[in-house]
Amino acid sequence: MRIVSRVYDLVRSRRLAAVLLAALAAWSGLATLVPQKGSTGGRTLQGAGDWLVRALGLDHAFSSPVFIGLAAALFVSTVACSLERTAAAVRLWRRADRPEAHARRLGARCDFVVEAADPAEAVQTASAALREAGLRVRTASSEVVLATSSRLGVWGSPAFHWLLAVLIVVIAAGQLTRAEGLMGVPVGGARLDTRASYGIVSEGPLHRGFTMLTVAVPSLELTHVVDGIDRGPTPYVELYDGPERLESGFVYPNHPLRYKSLIVHSNDIGLAVKLISPDGTETDALLDFDEARCVATSTLEAAGPGGVTALHLSIPLETVGGRCVRALPREPRIEWTATGPAGRRSGSVRPGERFEPVPGFAIAVARVGYYARLSVADDWSVYPMYAVFVLAVLALAVALFAPYREAAALVQKGPEGATVRIGARHARRDPSFQQRVRASVERAFSASCESCERRSRDDD
Length: 460
Known about the structure:
Helices cover 34% and strands 37% of the residues. The chain contains ten helices and 25 strands. Strands 4, 6, 12, 13, 14, 15, 16, 19, 20, 21 and 22 form an eleven-stranded antiparallel sheet that branches. The chain has a six-stranded antiparallel sheet with strand order 2-3-23-24-1-25, sandwiched between helices.
């Protein structure tokens, strides 16, 4: 039992919680410096430190064993702290059911004493003093007075810590069941929410499957002004379940489209080239802007009888004042290079023309337009997480601004008067509360208080 007690004391210590929080913050900071698996952009890890990054799991920082271990330890520590605070709250709550006995104990451990000339009025005067200190008198007998703040204040800290534990559980459950990825949708087109529609996608091990909803982008505004602020290129997104439109709206930073567990953010835009093969099959080639080279590029792969042919497409962009313009050129020209079993072929083509990446296989360029790269997340935990967070903030507000406070007076009558022993306790150990009680007592009794510690020394 001693070992169990020591372990419990360790996990509930505030120092351990602070260390774990600092470690998680440091780990998250390191994660921002390392390209994550499945992310777009960023440099590729190279060099001697690469093995350490991979060994620690920093390239998938928020699903690595290190992060999971730290989060689990923080959860255990939070639960232990919650149990400790709940037990203390229960004790404080039960004291109010035995006010006189508790008042005697509190008064016996007094913080300061004051002399009363009239023993008969001592209890009433002490009650008035504690009311002046902002407390409610719970009991006042011939010898003891107990006054407290609202009893609900005892639950602020326990509720806050339990809600933090629940928040960790909700976040963990959300990570296990969520899916998130980047979906490219040509303007005027649509994609079905399936795994095949994503260029990059990650799924939690318990993800229940994709929604099968249709994500459409009927239009795109290159400048979208809201509240006098240009939000930049902004797609208009619609969600459909079959023919039924479920939700729609413009999507720009901090303004996603939401439907139940589905959240759609705007990630970027690029150019889309619609290609038509000889058998009539249509393919949308999505080209991303490369401002360093001032082009929009993409690479496709086509499997044929002789093997795989890689088709690289690029569209030179226009410049204004020496700066590359991330927009569709007025007269777009598609430069193509095909590399495969038939050798290497290249050329350029414009919308409405055809080209042959493989001899005898003519591909038509139907049109060139824009596409919207959307970040689509299926995560049920977002709303519960916000709700738990709001409740935790409310509980913290109670703990900080309405903590439990109590004070008791024990009247000891003597032949020439009475000695009133005062004890005051604050749930957050705020010394100003005891000072406020002392000042109220001194005003009520028109006498100076003397600390119990000093009185004991003088008596000795």
